[in-house]
Amino acid sequence: MEPTASALSSIANLVKTIVGAGTLAIPYSFKSDGVLIGILLILLAAVTSGLGLFVLSKCSKTLINPRNSSFFTLCMLTYPTLAPIFDLAMIVQCFGVGLSYLVLIGDLFPGLFGGERNYWIIASTAVIIPLCLVKKLDQLKYSSILGLFALAYISLFIFSHFVFDLGKGKLTDVLENDICWWKIHDIKGLLSTFSIIIFAYTGSMNLFPMINELKDNSMENITLVINNSITLSTILFLTVGLCGYLTFGNKTSGNLMLNYDPNSIWIVIGKFCLGSMLILSFPLLFQPLRVAVNNVIIWLEITFGNADPNEDTQVSEYTRASNLRPISMTVDDPTQSNALATDATSYDEQDRLLPNGNLDNGSIEIQGHDGGTMAVPVDNEHHAPFVKSRFYWITAVLLISMYTLALSVQSFALVLSLVGATGSTSISFTLPGLFGYKLIGSDSLAVGKMIPPRDRFYKRCSLLLVFYGLSVMFLSLYVTLFNAPDNA
């Protein structure tokens, strides 16, 4: 399947993946952090999250065919025995956030149109199921654009409400007495709300599909998409966070929409936009969730060899490779070495020069302990294949389990915090750092070249990203379990 995504559609999908309902909790973080520290923490989260995305994209260029990049292929290339743990982190993240979206849908729509909570959760299947059956991320660009319009309305409402109240002099007392401009209002609250900001920037689950589907997936174009997505998200977070906090001060709630007059027609429209955004965001989380579940199944088949070799050619290839680790780059023809000696950013232009003959046939190479290699297929969506009807039964099982839980769970706040502390930090910082430290510069070493200074710098940044991710994870878990603010 030919890549069709433009830079603009990729930016729309990545921004929509990053920016979700958690945006409305950003003003609450300013309440605890104060204006100056809140801005600095958002900028810190933006830089580190952007670095994580950049490192992952650099790692994709170490593959023979960069369009085969995924968490699965990088895990099998670097830490094959830990591949299921990495995929489980993705499953926890996407399943938990998707479930929270369904719970919020059930809480939101009854207040707008009446009816029972469970009725609206079930009714959302009319939109969610068809979108979840889409196989390419780029096919969700129109729903992402609609979601961005909904988010734009909410952001403009918050901004215009602040400007209107400021112009009428209604905020004089709040700005003079309630706002902490330079100091931290609540140390415990700062530790807790930092995880909210980190969680808000999570977008790496859809980075690889975006890279694989870009028409021009050069490193320069990928960097352009990442930088624009992070910049737009940061502008939106700062606008909503500052305007919300400066409007309500110490009365700012964890969900900013609760601070406004519920009878206002503008708030009704805003809540409808929020509900629409949740529904349209769900498929963007479901795509990587389904892929991660399939990856775990494939890993089990590789490890334990449970598949019937006569049942499916693709599965049998994986099963026969159960003792072959890891996926690797190979250079068999010395006359081709110069093609690899170029910077990793040009791999997409050089890959057809490589001698292995498996660059365009949807396969990756696995190297055995004896030094031999074999090709293992990767399907047209650039991940482990959904053999036979597996795509549909995984979709069915996941949706049924998520909807069943959503109908019975009333409050998902604690679980969502735990998901953010573990899943978000793992796939945003720890995993990119581990991959980057092991892979960046490997293209130079493969041909006997010294690692360029720039790549050595990126490797050090990757190692720092690992320690940063682990520190944020343990700190967030501690705060969530023992020191969460009572009114969060």
Automatic annotation (TrEMBL):
InterPro entries: AA_transpt_TM (IPR013057)
Chain ranges of the Amino acid transporter transmembrane domain: 4-474
Matches recorded under Pfam families: Aa_trans
Topology relative to the membrane: Multi-pass membrane protein
Primary subcellular site in the record, as a coarse category: membrane
The entry's keywords: Membrane, Transmembrane, Transmembrane helix, Vacuole
Subcellular location: Vacuole membrane
Segments forming a coiled coil: none
Transmembrane feature ranges: 35-56, 77-105, 117-134, 146-164, 191-212, 224-248, 264-286, 391-409, 415-440, 461-481
PANTHER family hit by this protein: AMINO ACID TRANSPORTER, VACUOLAR AMINO ACID TRANSPORTER 7
Similarity remark: Belongs to the amino acid/polyamine transporter 2 family.
Name under which the protein is recorded: Amino acid transporter transmembrane domain-containing protein
The species this protein was found in: Saccharomyces eubayanus
